[in-house]
Structure prediction request, 512 residues.
Amino acid sequence: MITLYDYELSGNCYKLRLLMSFLGIDYKTVPVDFYPGREHKSEWFLKLNPLGQLPVIEDDGLILRDAQAILVYLAARYDPSRSWYPLDNPALLGEVSQWLAFADGITSTSSAARLHDGLFYDFDIDAARAGAHRLFRILDEHLWFGEQQGRNWICSASHPTIADIACFPYIILSEEGGIPRQDYPAIRRWCDRVKRIKGFTVMSGVFPAGPGKIAA
Amino acid sequence: MTKCLDPVILNLWHPIGAIAEAVPGGVQDTVLLEERLSFALNADGEPVVWRSRPDVQGPDRVPAADRLPARSTYGYVWTSLGSPPAELFPIPEYEEPDRRKLNAATFGVNVSAPRAIENFLDMGHFPYVHTDILGVEPHTEVKEYDVEISVDRDEILATRCRFFQPMASTASDGGADVDYVYRVPHPYCSVLYKSSPVDEARRDVIAVFLQPVDQEHVRAHMLLCVLDEDNEDKVIKRFQQTIFGQDKPILENQVPKRLPLDPRAETPIRADKSAIAYRRWLSQKGITYGVIPVAA
Ligand SMILES: N[C@@H](CCC(=O)N[C@@H](CS)C(=O)NCC(=O)O)C(=O)O
Ligand SMILES: [Fe+2]
Prediction:
């Protein structure tokens, strides 16, 4: 069975819990005391991931780090519909990879701001927030133009991909880093659509979609 | 924002960090009531606290006159910017040797300390915010309970609270009706007692100690003092962190951030019985920091 080395409040770990929930895959978790215990810097964990970062998975003897890399692996291996990671469509695969890299930028800005405010990490908070706003502006425009063309998701497909999963957590948690989303209406509507995907699951700090219509 | 001028708050003991996370000799910087403080454990493991200054780099270099009052209690370093009382409020259960005593975490939260206390006292949010853990629909009713302001102990006591909980603690193996007692023995600290799933004669103790950074930001220190022989520390901490992570967005979205003490300021649904008692108690003490006092 897949083992996820997990910290509940980590948005990067949540990306994998989300995908596995969408795919209906069973897995077990090994809790890592990321905070306050800093167990991701402990000797045993550094053997799994010398970068000292969550998440890590183990599957059939394969040890893999980096949320985006793990999304690729899990979707390629366990999604029979081949929609979350569209292996048969090179152009779409390129787009997915482009937005996976973008998601890592969201981690280094929006997630950094949240770590600063909530867990007292010594980061440049103004730079983190400004960086997140810059990325949110780009994504909001991208999603808005997509909506004009009848596209609901980040990539040019009629269904969500792992790019949507990779971008979602640190956007939905951005307020914990003092980054409001009121100026990004297309992002807000997209968040609501993500929450309505069958199999969606929450993490601590994320709430399910409200009843009724798509948010304005 | 001006620094704290509230004499009641200045004279209290305030928590500033967990002993378990202090590295011997290592200096930690923090903010209390808008003042930058440093603290460290000295060679004897005793806490030393001082107002941060660039020329003082360690606990042994602090001139005696510059030290702030310091104590180590319930696993945390406490200090005061005024003249604190001789004793901190009692938690007798902390001395019981078979309890697991842990700092679940210290989290920064964009909320006033009184708003955070009030949320801690409110059972009504359990099914909606802590769904499938501390509550679940249709068990949403907050049944009648008792609240008193104990004059001799100068604290608020809410008793006979009951709630159906699907997963009351890491030691639970299913849903149960859980009894609660809440104490507010300090304007910014609260202690709750809930039925233990492993010993029906005893209760788990969970406390939240709020360090006011300024009027609208706290560091929330969460003490666990629970009965659980099976789970690892990190599993017990994770449970409490999950709960707190669910409260966090709710706390951070409270408007206004400071707690209005005027009984007419907010609807009685939000300000239920224990909240009304808490607000009245803060008013009686003349507290102005972190609140919107009743207009004179
Ligand atoms: N690119 C990595 C970043 C992972 C990451 O930042 N993980 C955080 C926890 S959510 C972490 O472990 N940080 C500790 C560190 O970077 O030292 C990924 O997407 O998995
Ligand atoms: Fe709560």
